Amino acid sequence: MAIDENVEAIKGAAEGITYPILIDAEHLLTETYAISNVPTVIWIDEHNNIVQPNWSAFGTDTFVEFTGVESGPQKDLVRRWVTHNEPMMEPAAAAEAVHDLTHEEEQARLYFRIAAKLRRDGDEDGAERNFATAVEFAPHDWTIRRAAMPLRGKDPFGEDFMTMYGEWQEAGSPYHGVPSVRTR
Question: Quick one: 13 and 59 in the same domain?
């Protein structure tokens, strides 16, 4: 699921992928599952039970130098679950692993949605005001701050991103969920 509204950018990134990719321009998925960073993986079994809550995992080693997270151990955990029905954690622990969004995070998501709507309607000033307010409420929520970057004309991998990343690390790398298995 891509939390983006640029279908053309998603098409380019999805080149060669054979499974369906959904686009959540309204960020409903991030609100429903308290997702505050990307990539986030959620394991849902055939009975629609969340087996593994929000987990920051990578499917490739594209960003391993930057994140210190290799994809191999993450993929091994997925294989173990799929082939041997061995989840990463017990159901009780999984249920407690992700906390609800704070009031400020909920406010940020509302302002983000308002900003995105205003932007789509051509009100750039109103959109910018609301994007800025959303970032003030949740400065370390990537689904707000980083997702707003391309919508605000900023490079989501450029200097603004590096500044955001440094601030996020200084704040203790806040994340709603289970951290990645670090190998570096």
Answer: yes
